[in-house]
Structure formats: structure tokens, C-alpha cells
Amino acid sequence: MTQVEVLSAGRDRVGGYKVDVSRGERVSRVSSEWFSRPADERYLTLSDLYAAVRGRAERSRTRTVESAAIRVEASRDDAERLALLLPGSDTPIAPTHWSFGQLASLVGAPATYLRQLPAPLAGINLQFGLSSHRAEQVKTLEIEDGRVELRAATGPEYGRIFDQELVAAVQRIAGNGTGDTRWKIPGVLDWSTGVYNPHVDISQDTTTLYASDRDVFLFLVDDLNPIEAGRLRDGSPDLYFRGFYCWNSEVGAKTLGMASFYLRAVCQNRNLWGVEDFEEITIRHSKYAASRFAQEAAPALASFANSSPMPFVNGIKAAREKVVARTDDDRNEFLRKRGFSKAETARIIERVLSEEGRKPESVFDFVQGITAVARGKTHQDARLDLETRAKKLLDRAA
């Protein structure tokens, strides 16, 4: 029985497996989320996350109002207090920090400057902007939780996708996200041994399920079922597993999107290592965003979750077998014809030599060299450019 078969057949008996994270890309998006989330934005199960975002959606209401009909009130007794009165209601609505910025942006006012003013003066300026707002209409998202707050203020064409809709779509393929299906919160790479352990207790330090008052972010993997896609230099299997992350904001803080990929490991601070075949789609919250989510994003997520890894494995195999250079002249010509500078060409060849103990020959060798050089780039645009070019090479070989 192969190592992969052992891992697939005996989940509860296997502590981990050896991985080579010197290959592929490093993706830091999940790590950025992990570092920035306070304790009250971290959830241990998809059920808990769904209950939180559904609860706030049920307490919310949305409506479209004439901007000129919005009244701004400031308290003489409290220089910091600003409230809004919307048509059809006598209940004051308190703008959040986020929605105040949206309102100011809609009417062309500098939110940072207004926040520095006493509330009565800020109110006068905001009222003038609302009264003379050319777009005329504002779509609001209000929530009642002890008091009524304005969570978002957007244009009338804003297509809201509630966070609960995304979480529900993930639940349909991932259950609770804790291992009750093949999709779960990831394990951790032990840097001292190079062993990735998929069996890690879920805690606030390890979870990758997040939600704030502005957004939601989820990252799950299928790390109990690794896939062998070729062999490493020492003859051991080159193991990958599938992963995806997705995000949304129902208040207009960001797009809706999701990314799917194969990876070799996740470390303690939630950096993704050895990433291959990275694909991403985003959906702007335009007028038809909800229908696009139903027709594109949710089916794409389900398709990836249920798809066979064989196209990916066969692509890696084809790239390994496609020898494109046997001499130094061949190597230089292969890279220079594809737009790499003389300095980049030398660095790519050197990285493969240092990591593999030989100079690149196959398309896969060159792809690994390019992504290794990309990892050393501090400028994001330069790194993304190299990673994109590497992916194109791999796709063509496949």
C-alpha cells in the first residue's frame, strides 16, 4: 500500500506526512486574515459562524430613500453624537464608523475631515451634501440591536449578497468544517521535521473561520486525503491537498470572491505553502450580483469540492515529462524567448540547481524555478507577474 493509500484509508491512525514546501508558491492572504482578527471575530465551527451572520441579517432591514429626505441631527449636549432620521420613522439611526464614511463618500465629502469636526458642524456639512446629492437615492442597511444602527449606505444599484448566503453555500459541501466531511479547518506544518499534521485541535489560535461587522472570510482544506503528483528528488511522493478560501461583505467593504488551489502545507500562522493551480473569481456587488452568485460562484465552489484531482495530477505529470532544455544554451533560449531578462534567467536556473541539485530540463523544473524566484520578491506586482507567467507555462504543458 502506498503512502497516499495509507493516509486515505486510515485517517485516525496517521499523525502526518512529509511535504516539500520549497516548491510552488507561498500565499499569504489567509495569514493576513489570521493576524488581524480579534477573538470575537473567530469561530470554531461553520454552524456558529452561520448562526452569527444569520442572526444579524434577521435583525436588519434595507430600504431605498431619497437622500434629500434624510435629516442629520447633532446633540448640543454631546459633541460626538450624530444621528440620522429617515423618512417614515421617528427613531434616530446611529451611523457606524463604516456607514458614516460611505455616506460622506456618496455626497463627495471628506469623511476623515468630517470626523475631526464637532458633531453639530459635521452634521451641517453632511446635511448640505445630502440635500444637494445629484444621485438622489441611498440604499440603507439598518440593524436593531438595543439601538438602531446604520450598517451601510450605498447607491441604489448596489447588489447585496448577505454573508449568510456564502456561509450556507460552504456548509452544503463542508458540513460543520470540523472534519465531519472531507473539508475542514487545516492542520499545521512542523518546520523542524517537515511533517504536515492534519490532526490539530481547533481553537481560536488555529481556526480559519472569521466574521466581523463588515465581512466574512473562510478557509478550508481537504488535508486528510493528500494526492500524489509525481516524486521528489529523493524518490518520496510529492504530496498535495486541495484548499479554498472565500470572502464577502454585505456592507460594501469588499467584493464577493473565492479562490481554489492545491497546496502542500499550512503553517501555524496560516501561510499557505507549495501552492499550485491557483484560481480566483470575484463578483462585484453590482445590480445582478445575487444572480451571478447563484449561477457562477456557488456552483463553482461545489464543482471544485466534488471534482477529480486527475486533471491537476496529469498536468503536473505532463510538465515533468516535457523536456525542453538539455544544454545551457537551451535553458537560456527557453526563458529569454518567454520574456525573462538575462538576470532573471540566471536566477531561475540557479534556484533550480540549488534546490534540485541539477539544472532545469522539463517545463515543471522551470515552473518551480520561476515560482521560487517569485517568493523572494518583496514587491507584490513583481511577484504576481512571475507567478502568472509560471502558471501559463504549466497550463500550456498540460
Structure description:
The protein has helices spanning 3-9, 29-36, 46-58, 97-106, 111-115, 119-131, 163-174, 289-306, 310-321, 328-336, 342-356, 363-375, 380-397; strands spanning 17-18, 25-27, 42-43, 60-66, 71-74, 82-85, 94-95, 137-144, 148-154, 188-190, 195-197, 209-211, 216-231, 237-248, 256-263, 265-266, 272-283. Helix 7 runs parallel beside helix 8, helix 10 packs across helix 11 (342-356) and helix 11 (342-356) crosses helix 12. The two termini are 28 Å apart. The chain is of the alpha+beta class. The chain is elongated, with a radius of gyration of 25 Å. It is built from 13 helices and 17 strands. The relative contact order is 0.13. The strands form four sheets. Strands 2, 3, 12, 13, 14, 15, 16 and 17 form an eight-stranded antiparallel β-sheet that branches.
Q: What is the radius of gyration computed over CA atoms, rounded to a whole number of angstroms?
A: 25 Å
Structural class: alpha+beta
Biggest sheet details: 8 strands, antiparallel
Count of distinct strands? 17
User: Could you tell me the mean pLDDT?
Assistant: 86
Label the overall shape. elongated
Order of helices and strands: HEEHEHEEEEHHHEEHEEEEEEEEHHHHHH
If helices are DSSP runs of H or I spanning 4 or more residues, what is the number of helices? 13
Helix content: 25-40%
User: What portion of residues belong to β-strands?
Assistant: 15-25%
